[in-house]
């Protein structure tokens, strides 16, 4: 494994970097064009595909094709299982980042149509990629790639005076072994970035069929503070974006290399 290369048992999950709003969905949204552009600026994990995957995709990359304002593939499809649904931000958002109305009320059939078109196919792709990794290598690590604003948005219900880290490492009690969490914390910490665990966001995503039942499928969320790489006015990459992106990926690879050193030798050949 070269210093810039992910191991073959890794799947990169990029759920929130798209800004695409299909025409048929645009008519559901109550926002003016200007307000919609602003909401996309607030809610998009800008350029996270480029931050984590790099110019050559040497790992399986599962990237949502539409904006999270269409469907949020990171949420549970069932609102009864999704904590954010209580704030109007389940898999189908009803409110904006500032808790204003986002879309007209949908019928159950309209809601299901969005899930059928965008949510379920995304998760089928994720399931398939993880299945391949487990079949070939005996395990899979899902890296859930995100970004977050330097100051909290109203929907977060967070303390605006709390200083946010440069990097947030999200973990799951079942799917994130402590050795995996610690490897990511140490790798990013060596880069002189301020690193926090499950702050300001927590958790890490795995396919629903493996959730809390298959320890071979592991996951870690990496959230990058947008102040590191994004111009706050233009929402375009800063001048040193390529350097930051290279460092993000290098830290991920270094963490995975350190974590792989803890594997039992009989579990898998990490060079395969």
Can you characterise this structure?
It is built from six helices and six strands. It is α/β, with parallel strands linked by helices and 272 residues long. It has a domain at 10-20 and 48-65 and 107-260: Zn-dependent exopeptidases (Aminopeptidase), CATH 3.40.630. A six-stranded mixed β-sheet has the order 2-1-3-6-4-5, with helices on both faces. α5 (178-189) links the parallel β4 and β5 (195-197).
Q: Tags for this entry?
A:
single chain; 272 residues; alpha/beta; Aminopeptidase; 6-stranded mixed sheet; 6 strands; globular
In short:
By secondary structure, this protein is α/β, with parallel strands linked by helices. It has six helices and six strands; from the N terminus they run βαααβαββαββα. The protein has a domain at 10-20 and 48-65 and 107-260: Zn-dependent exopeptidases (Aminopeptidase, 3-Layer(aba) Sandwich).
């Amino acid at each position: 494994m070269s210093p810039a290369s992910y191991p073959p048992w890794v799947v990169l999950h990029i759920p929130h970097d798209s800004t695409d709003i299909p025409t048929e969905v645009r008519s559901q949204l109550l926002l003016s064009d200007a307000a919609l552009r602003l909401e996309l600026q607030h809610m998009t994990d800008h350029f996270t595909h480029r931050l984590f995957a790099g110019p050559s995709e040497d790992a399986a990359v599962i990237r949502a094709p539409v904006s999270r304002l269409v469907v949020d593939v990171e949420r549970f499809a069932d609102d009864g299982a999704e904590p954010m649904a209580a704030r109007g931000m389940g898999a189908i958002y009803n409110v904006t980042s500032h808790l204003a109305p986002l879309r007209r009320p949908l019928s159950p059939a309209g809601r299901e149509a969005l899930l059928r078109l965008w949510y379920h196919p995304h998760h089928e792709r994720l399931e398939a990629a993880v299945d391949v990794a487990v079949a070939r290598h005996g395990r899979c690590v899902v890296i859930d790639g995100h970004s977050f604003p330097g100051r909290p948005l109203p929907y977060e219900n967070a303390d605006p005076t709390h200083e946010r880290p440069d990097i947030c490492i999200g973990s799951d009690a079942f799917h994130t072994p402590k050795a995996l969490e610690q490897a990511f914390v140490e790798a990013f910490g060596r880069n002189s970035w301020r690193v926090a665990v499950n702050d300001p966001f927590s958790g890490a995503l795995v396919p629903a069929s493996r959730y809390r039942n298959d320890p071979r499928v592991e996951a870690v969320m990496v959230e990058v503070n947008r102040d590191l790489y994004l111009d706050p006015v233009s929402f375009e990459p800063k001048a040193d974006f390529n350097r930051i992106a290279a460092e993000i990926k290098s830290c991920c690879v270094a963490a995975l290399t350190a974590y792989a050193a803890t594997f039992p030798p009989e579990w898998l050949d990490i060079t395969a």
